[in-house]
């Protein structure tokens, strides 16, 4: 049985800052889910603020590396999805306020 929790994975990913806006990916609402199997393999489902994001590959690599640093984690896969499409309403209130989305 794996002891890694979804909350712990989200905490690890919260160390990844979007360099364009200065907020972490969890605060921005870009991390949709983290699925952990019995072998502690982690599948992260996320999106980006735009499909044409120039930092697409770097950001997904940073997410993978943040999760891989967790103790006892197995394989890590990061899947970028475009549905549902991200919008500012998915972000935490502090991000919405800072980016003018409230």
Question: How would you sum up this structure, described in words?
Answer:
The protein has one domain: GMP Synthetase, Chain A, domain 3 (2-Layer Sandwich). Helices cover 26% and strands 16% of the residues. It contains three helices and three strands. A three-stranded mixed β-sheet has the order 1-2-3, with helices on one face. A hairpin with a 5-residue loop joins strand 1 and strand 2. The protein starts with 5 loop residues before the first helix and ends with a helix. The relative contact order is 0.22. The model has no long low-confidence stretch (mean pLDDT 93).
The count of β-strands is 3
Mean pLDDT, to the nearest integer, reads: 93
Biggest sheet statistics:
3 strands, mixed
Estimate what percentage of residues fall within beta strands: 15-25%
Chain-wise SSE layout:
Layout: H1 6-13, E1 31-36, E2 42-46, H2 56-68, E3 76-80, H3 93-98
Parallel strand pairs: 2-3
Antiparallel strand pairs: 1-2
Write a compact overview of the structure shown:
With 102 residues, this protein is of the alpha+beta class.
Note the main attributes of this structure.
102 residues, alpha+beta, GMP Synthetase, Chain A, domain 3, 3-stranded mixed beta sheet, 3 strands, 26% helix
